Amino acid sequence: MSLRAPLLYLGMAAVLLLIGWLQSWSVALSIVNLCLISAVMALGVNMQWGYAGLFNVGIMGFAALGGVAAVLVSMPPVAAAWAAGAGGIGLAALAVALTAVAATALRRRLAPGRWRVLAVTLVVLLGYALARRAFDPGAEAIEAVDPALTGYLGGLGLPILLAWLVGGLFAAGAAWLVGKTALGLRSDYLAIATLGISEIILSVLKNEDWLTRGVKNVTGLPRPVPYEIDLQAAPWFVARAEAWGIDPVEASSIAVKLAYAGLFLAVLVVLMWLAERALNAPWGRMMRAIRDNETAAEAMGKDVTGRHLEIFVLGSAVVGIAGAMLTTLDGQFTPGSYNPLRFTFLIWVMVIVGGSGNNWGAVFGAFLVWLVWVEAEPAGRWLMGAITAGLGEEHWLRLHLIAGAPHMRMVLMGAILILALRFSPKGLIPERPRTRPARAPDC
Amino acid sequence: MADILNALAVFGNFVAVPGIAYGSQLALGALGITLIYAVLRFANFAHGDTMAFGTMAAILGTWGLQAAGIGLGPLPTALLALPLGIAATAGLVLLTDRYIYRYHRARRSTPVTFVILSIGVMFVLNGLVRFVIGPDDQRFADGERFIIRARDFEALTGLEEGLTIRTTQLLTLVVAVAVVAALFWFLRRTRTGKAMRAFSDNEDLALLSGVDPDRVVRVTWLIAAALATVAGVLYGLDKSFKPFTYFQLLLPMFAAAIVGGIGHPVGAIAGGFVIAFSELGLTYAYKRVAGYLLPEPWAPEGLMQLLGTDYKFAISFIILVVVLLVRPTGLFRGQVI
């Protein structure tokens, strides 16, 4: 057991404490919260990449599905919208299901060839036309219900914590569909395919207003923790804050963030425990065997495609949970804010830098990279300001450089990724070697 | 008869003409991806941002020329700045190859490592472009905007529907044809081109025959840089330049390269047009076309639009998946350039 991992974690804790002490505790806690969510996402990616070597760059899509779950579970239902258009949507869903059944049946019955392709295509087109006939008026009616405030079906009005589970289920379902079609592909094809799927998921979420309000966003999601205002009004809280010598307003913000951090940490701990158990179990050994030599594992009778599908679904579910957590923390669902650089590729940087194949590494990578990502913006602005200080306050170059400074963190992330692959390809906390070192035979 | 011509004019105006221009731009981009794949054997995720970088360099050049009062009359000034953009991009990709990819090539890292490296390069270029030119829309087309305006076309032919052809659309086609012709001549006729094809076909055999691998790799990067810059400038002239849009072009370009058969230049061109026409054809509302073609009582009530325009990217991806499932080698078989 090397001291490397504990030392790195201690260092991270020290840096976060320093930020709290120098900047403010509220800022430090915001960073910690997003670090924790990123850590869960990185854990999901590490399962797919580190355990099984699956190259999934559709993280954003699965995270967004988790976000949708938060909306659909927690928002109150819009009764008028249900009355207006739910029937049409339901009919359309029925038509789609029937088409799928009919197409599959036809595919099974008919002999392969040109006629089968033609027949299946015709059935699908017909089904699509029928579904659209029922769907369009339904969706229109729903979107017409008080469009400035609702204009969508709303949710189920259940506690938002439940959405974390549902988000995982949504992502798992989508991953199952994707995995069924795309997992047989070579690694770079799989990457392109998953990149495309995440774009599709996002474009559906942006444009199906009846479901998610699209780019009009859903704001004011219910919270699993108390509101700051309520805390400030509660006498016991104010008394406690004054006893500690903190301003009640700041104390309420810190308390809320601490509550979130506790919830996120609980999720991370549970998932981490499960992931470590799985990795050390025979199942984890089998996964590594498949990752390291697919052909040999297959020759030993392992179902490579089946196991790949399994880990793809599990990893995506973890990402979906993290996505739901993120939307819960934000208190709003904004499909327009999902950007593959931030939600897919940044998570990849975390896993690679932290150490793929090692859960502790991935989690540490998430903390480190998120911290750098957040702090790079003010640091870049300060740096540019310092460099150009001699140019005079209103010089065009100075203004341009300071305005552009936030984009430099992209450059920084790319550089970190490239340097990590060159100088520390196994990551900061590398995967533990599982085999005992070969002992020289006794003579 | 007039009805049919009117229907054709509408179709041409909204699908055929833009489709040819967009298809040419995608084809040029996909060619770059396919060449990198054929020779260096990885999917280059940085290609979209390489395009953005080249376009940015050309735009900066264009602004310089415009400030100096140099122009091409009816043609956009950006054409003059194109060589500058190509040179800058060529320098950039050679630097990335020298300091990033070469080390891993020598160590024979796995193809996935190269893909992740290209993601790193993508981040760097993305940040760099936004840092220099900003994340906003830039329009840099100047000169004559139209070859045929809708009104002139109506006056000329006496039809009810107008057909607009913009200068940039014709320019795209002409430049794309010229570039593709030059590329094919290079690959088929010159010694270096033949060395590239041999290297792509069988690396060991090519090395045994005395092909210089470093030179082949260098030339491939140079061609990819030139193709990316030309594609990017043409796309920017035709629509507008925005760094994020160029990043998003990655998906249709990959789709075009794979649909055509990755590593296959003719396939990349065919794939570009397949993707472009499916995107436009499936998201176009055929109401007006049908209105001319069908007798009055059959005129459609709805828009006759298969998918909303917002699902453009989804289409390229769906085609990609269908091709991967039905015919994984793409339209043109084989991994040969």
Question: Can you walk me through this structure?
Answer:
- Chain A has 443 residues and is mainly α.
- Chain A has two domains: 8-77 and 154-423, ABC transporter involved in vitamin B12 uptake, BtuC; 78-153.
- Helix content of chain A is 75%, strand content 1%.
- Chain A is built from 18 helices and two strands.
- The longest helix of chain A is centred in the middle third of the chain and has 33 residues, at 248-280.
- Chain B is mainly α.
- Chain B has one domain: ABC transporter involved in vitamin B12 uptake, BtuC, CATH 1.10.3470.
- Chain B has helices spanning 2-40, 47-68, 78-106, 111-133, 150-157, 167-189, 191-201, 203-208, 213-238, 243-248, 250-260, 265-283, 287-293, 312-326, and strands at residues 146-148, 165-166.
Task: List strands and helices in order, with pairings.
The complex is a heterodimer of chains A (443) and B (337).
Chain A: H1 4-22, H2 25-51, H3 59-74, H4 79-109, H5 114-143, H6 161-182, H7 187-207, H8 209-212, E1 218-219, H9 228-233, H10 235-244, H11 248-280, H12 282-292, H13 294-299, H14 304-330, E2 332-333, H15 340-354, H16 359-387, H17 396-404, H18 408-423
Antiparallel strand pairs in A: 1-2
Chain B: H1 2-40, H2 47-68, H3 78-106, H4 111-133, E1 146-148, H5 150-157, E2 165-166, H6 167-189, H7 191-201, H8 203-208, H9 213-238, H10 243-248, H11 250-260, H12 265-283, H13 287-293, H14 312-326
Antiparallel strand pairs in B: 1-2
